[in-house]
């Protein structure tokens, strides 16, 4: 693979937080944003505003919750986390259109984009499964 092929593939598989904000405002019904982070609930209590929460370890059992007619945008913790990549592989193998949000929730928060704090009634499971 040459450099051009690499960068074309990278751009095809990812979307930056800025590009996602712009695209989702222009066509909000085109996308579904999913938080696929695993880990203890107390560290996952802040999520990107409007994101569905489907931990990567539950994804294979919850495919019916994900629409095939939307582009699925996945995110995890940060640039060092590969949880979204693992989730993307599962979704791609099942016929979904998928991109990874570059930088995860860390980049999103750094840009001061909207987040939500989960309440007790939306408590997440504590086992990591990482």
TrEMBL record:
Single GO MF descriptor: transferase activity
TM segment ranges: none
Record has Iron as a keyword: no
Gene3D superfamilies cross-referenced by the UniProt entry: Rhodanese-like domain (3.40.250.10)
Keyword annotations of the record: Transferase
Ranges where the Rhodanese domain occurs: 27-117
Taxonomic path: Bacteria, Bacillati, Bacillota, Bacilli, Bacillales
Keyword Transmembrane helix: no
Protein name: Rhodanese-related sulfurtransferase
């Amino acid at each position: 693979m040459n450099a051009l092929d690499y960068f074309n593939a990278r751009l095809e598989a990812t979307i930056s937080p800025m590009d996602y904000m712009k695209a989702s405002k222009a066509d909000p019904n085109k996308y579904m944003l999913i938080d696929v982070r695993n880990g203890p609930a107390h560290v996952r209590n802040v999520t990107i505003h409007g994101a569905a929460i489907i931990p990567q370890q539950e994804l294979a059992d919850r495919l019916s919750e994900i629409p095939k007619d939307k582009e699925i945008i996945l995110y995890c913790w940060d640039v060092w986390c590969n949880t979204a990549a693992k989730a993307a592989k599962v979704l791609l193998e099942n016929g979904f259109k998928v991109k990874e949000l570059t930088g995860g929730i860390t980049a999103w928060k750094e840009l001061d984009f909207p987040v939500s704090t989960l309440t007790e009634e939306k408590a997440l499971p504590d086992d990591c499964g990482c």
